[in-house]
Design a protein that fits this description.
With 115 residues, the chain is an alpha+beta fold. It is built from three helices and five strands, in the order H-E-E-H-H-E-E-E. It is 22% helix and 17% strand.
């Protein structure tokens, strides 16, 4: 049995609708949206179903994906753009467009109260 290799089409659609053509970090309009796994799939993918759910996905511009998330990993973990393997993505707050939210698996998000 093969393992899922990425976000299925329905999840991709949900995340693209959630982002509405804007990067979920910098909020800039972009034509180069890349889907980012907040909790990495790992080498050879994973059997964990939440890995390819909408709560584990961010739609990012190329600059944020590679220039912020992948280049500044400590900050990315602090901001919820990356999630540790021991955590469930739906339970880890993420800094999305300067607001703290929890992402859900139906393509939405829930604002969190300010600290």
């Amino acid at each position: 049995m093969s393992r899922p290799q990425g976000f299925p089409p329905i999840v991709r659609t949900l995340v693209f609708e959630r982002c509405a053509g804007r990067c979920e970090i910098c909020n800039e309009w972009t034509s180069d949206i890349e889907l980012h796994h907040r909790r990495a799939r790992g080498m050879g993918s994973t059997r964990r179903p939440e890995t390819n759910m909408a709560s584990n996905a961010l739609a990012l511009c190329h600059m944020c994906h590679h220039g912020r998330v992948e280049s500044y990993r400590s900050q990315a973990y602090e901001n919820g753009w990356l999630v540790r393997q021991s955590r469930l993505p739906a339970e880890v707050p993420v800094l999305r467009r300067d607001r703290w939210v929890l992402l859900d698996d139906i393509g939405g998000f829930h604002l969190l109260e300010a600290a």
